[in-house]
Amino acid sequence: MAQPALADHPPAKAETEAVLTDTIVVTASRSETISRDGIAPPEQIALPADAVAIAARTPGGALVGNGALSGQLSYRGLAGQRVLGRVNGQRFASGGPNAMDPPLHYAPSILVERIDIARGVAPVSQGPSLAGAVNAQLVETQFTDSASLTPQVRFTSQYRSVDDSYAVGGLAGIANETVRFGVIASREEGEDYDFPGGTAAGTSFERNLYGAHAGFHAGPGELFVEYRRSETDPTGNPPFALDIVYFDTDFIQGGFRGEIASDVFLNVKAGHVAVRHLMDNQTTRRPAAAPMQARATFADADTSTLEGSLRFGTSGAYFEMGADAELTDKFVQITNPTNAAFFIDSQPNVQSERVGAFAQWRGSLGALEFELGARLDRTIQSAGTPQLGAAVPMGPRGLAAAFSAADRDRSETTVDTVLRAWLPLGNITPRLTLARKERVPSLLERFGWLPTEASFGLADGNIYVGNLDLVPETAWIAEVGFDLENDVFSLRPTLFYRRVDDFIQGVPFDATIGVVDSPVEMIAAMNGDATPLRFGNVDAELYGADLDFNVRPIERLEISGTASYVRGKRRDIDDNLYRIAPANLRLSAAWLGDRFSFGAELVAAADQDRVSLANDEEPSDGYAVVGLFGRYALTDGLAVEAGVENLFDTGYQPHLAGRSRVGASDVPVGERLPGAGRGGWVRVTARF
C-alpha cells in the first residue's frame, strides 16, 4: 500500500495502518498498487470521471449514480451528508441544492493520487461525521532528500469508447529537501454513453481543473499553501429536473504542519471554498422545457474553515487535542430565463456556523492497542427572508410569508465518542469499534421552505419540503472483525450494527396522504406530485457484513475481491430503509508479470426486493458484469493499460442509479439509468 504524502504532521501509525484505514491507490506505479489490503487496484478498470466510483469499490461501498460527475458514496447503507467527504483534507459545502457537486466532484480521477476511507467510523479528529469519512488526495510535488532542485513530472491520459470520452492530466513541479512547488491540470470531456439497447441521452460531461501548490520546510515542519480552480461546463444530469450549466469553484488552503518540539506536533490550517453554480433545463436537456416551465437556478456556497491541533507523543502512543470552526453561507434562487419577473429565493442566505473541539488518545494496554476520542460541537443555523418576483403565484407567496414569520434560528450541541481497539496476535488482528455519532440536520433539510425536488441527490422524482423542527440524528455503532494475513492469503471481514435514533428521511407531509388540503400539497400537485414528502425524524437500524480478501496461490497469480451486505430497517414502523444497496461482490484474478500483467474482473449484485414501501421504492434485479484488463510497462516510469468493460454487453440497472428525466433518450422517462454497455479503454501513465 502506498504511504501518504506529507500528512498534517508526521503520520502516526494509527493514520496509515490498514487496520484503521482503507487506502485505494489510483495513479501510482504498478509496484505500488500490488498491495495486500484486498482492495482491487484501479488499473483493472477505466478510470471513471467521477472519483466516487473508485471509492465505492471499498468493502461496504456502493455508488449512488446521479450522472457522470455527480455520484455519491453509499457506505454501509448511509450516503449523502452522513459520509464526510474531503479533498486534500479540506471539508466544504456543496453548491448545488441537489448535490450535483458532492465533494469528490472536485477530484478528477486522472489527478487523484489515492483515496483514504476511514474503516467503519471516522476518528473524532477528522470532524463530525455520522458514518465513515473519505478523502481524495490529489497529486502533489514531494520533498526530496537532496539539496539540488529536481523536476517531478506525472502524466496520465485515457480514452473510453463507451462514451467517446477522453481525460488528460498531470503534475509538473520542482523540489529539493527544503522547498517544493508544483502545478496540476486536467481536462475531461465525454459524450452520451451507450448501453445495450441504445444511448443514455443527456449524460455528456466536460470539466477542467488547474492549480498550484508550494511548501517550505521550516525546520522539521512545513509551511504550505495550495490553490485550485475547478470549472465544470455543461454536463447532463438525467436523474434531476435540471442539468449543470456550470460550476466555477475556487479552493485555497494553507498553514503549518510538523514538529515544534521533541515529540510535539502542531497542525494549523485555514481554508476557503467558493462555489458558483448555474443549472437549467434549456442548455443540454432535450427536449428543452417549454417557456412556462423553463427554469434556471443560481446557487452560491461559501465555506471558511479553521482548524488546529497539538499532538504529544510518537506513533505508538500519543495524546492529541484540537479545535476547528466551519462557517457556511449558501444562497439559491430559482428563475425563469424567459420571464425576468419570476424568481424565488428557495434558500435565502442560509447559514451554518460550527465550532468544535476534540481530544484523542492512542495507546496500549499490554498487547491491546486502542484509539479513544471524544468531540463536542456547537452548531448555529439560520435563514434569511425569501424574496419573490412579481410573476410568482400566490401559493409560494403564502409559504414564503409563513416561513418569514417563523423562528429561523436554530442551535444544536452534539457529542461524538469513538473507541477503536485491536489486538495484534501474529498473523491475525481482532478488532472492535464502539461509537456514538451525531449529525445536525442539513440546511436544506431544515430550511427548504419551498416544495421542490431538491433532496441532496436522492433524485427520485419526489417533491420534498424542509422541517424547522428536526432534531439531530444519533447513531450507536458497534463493529467487530479481524484482519488475517500471511505470505499467501489475507482476509478482513467485519460485522457491524448501527442503531440510529431520529434518522432523517422523507415522510408523508401529513396524515391525509393523497388529499390535497394544504398549500404545500397544492403547490406540489401543480408540479406533478400530489403526495409530497417532508424531511422528518424516524428511527432506524442498519446491520450487515463486508469483507475483502487477497490470495496468491502461486507467485504470479493474484485473486482478490470484496463482498458487502447491508440491511436497513425502520424501527418506528414495519418498513425497510430507503435506497439500500443490494448484496454485491467484486472478484478479480490477475497474472502479474515483470512488465506485462493481465486479468479479468467480475462485478455482481443480487436482487434488491427489501425496499421502502413508505417511499414507493421499486425493487431491482441482480446482475453480473465481466471486464478484462491488461498492462504493459515500457519502462519503470511509462506504462500502457487497456481493457474491455462489460465484455458480454450485459444489460443491467444498478439499484442506486437515479431515474432518467430526459425525454429524448433511449432510456424511458422514470426508468433507472442503465449501466454502460461493452466498450474498450486505453490509458497511458508516465512519471519521471
Automatic annotation (TrEMBL):
Signal peptide positions on this chain: none
Stated name of the protein: Uncharacterized protein
Biological process, per Gene Ontology: siderophore transmembrane transport
Key words of the record: Cell outer membrane, Membrane, Signal, TonB box, Transmembrane, Transmembrane beta strand, Transport
Motif TonB box mapped to chain: 23-29
Predominant localisation class: membrane
Family, as annotated: Belongs to the TonB-dependent receptor family.
Recorded topology in the membrane: Multi-pass membrane protein
Subcellular location as annotated: Cell outer membrane
Entry superkingdom: Bacteria
Entry GO terms, CC: cell outer membrane
Residues of the TonB-dependent receptor-like beta-barrel domain: 222-647
A Pfam cross-reference name: Plug
UniProt domain TonB-dependent receptor plug: residue ranges: 55-134
UniProt GO MF annotations: siderophore uptake transmembrane transporter activity
